[in-house]
């Protein structure tokens, strides 16, 4: 699960380095988010290679998914976010739930 999430994450995130941002957008925030999220894809890949060894990192993986999905879905519910972004947030929330389930079933 973690390796598939890493592949999905790189496919979705890397192109964000090349999107045109609207005037007045916080460029440093955008690129900071994309860069940090891509680093986490590396962590997911590592966890996927040895889940028992890296079990302690799994809660961080869950948190990484929640820090985007929960605020994004909240903004969507308030009518302040476009549906395509909410779809990606929902996918991240599902991945976070999967990561949590993986953490619970992985032996210590």
Automatic annotation (TrEMBL):
Protein name: Uncharacterized protein
Sequence intervals crossing the membrane: 7-25, 31-50, 57-79, 85-103
Keywords for the protein's UniProt record, in alphabetical order: Membrane, Transmembrane, Transmembrane helix
Phylogenetic classification of the source organism: Bacteria, Pseudomonadati, Pseudomonadota, Alphaproteobacteria, Sphingomonadales
Keyword Transmembrane among UniProt keywords: yes
């Amino acid at each position: 699960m973690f390796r598939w999430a890493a592949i999905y994450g790189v496919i979705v995130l890397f192109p964000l380095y090349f999107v045109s941002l609207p005037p007045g957008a916080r460029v440093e925030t955008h690129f900071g988010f994309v860069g940090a999220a891509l680093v986490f894809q590396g962590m997911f890949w590592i966890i996927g290679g040895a889940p028992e060894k890296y079990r302690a990192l799994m809660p961080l993986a869950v948190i990484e998914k929640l820090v985007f999905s929960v605020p994004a879905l909240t903004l969507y519910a308030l009518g302040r976010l476009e549906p395509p972004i909410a779809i990606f947030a929902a996918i991240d929330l599902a991945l976070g739930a999967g990561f949590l389930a993986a953490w619970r079933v992985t032996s210590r």
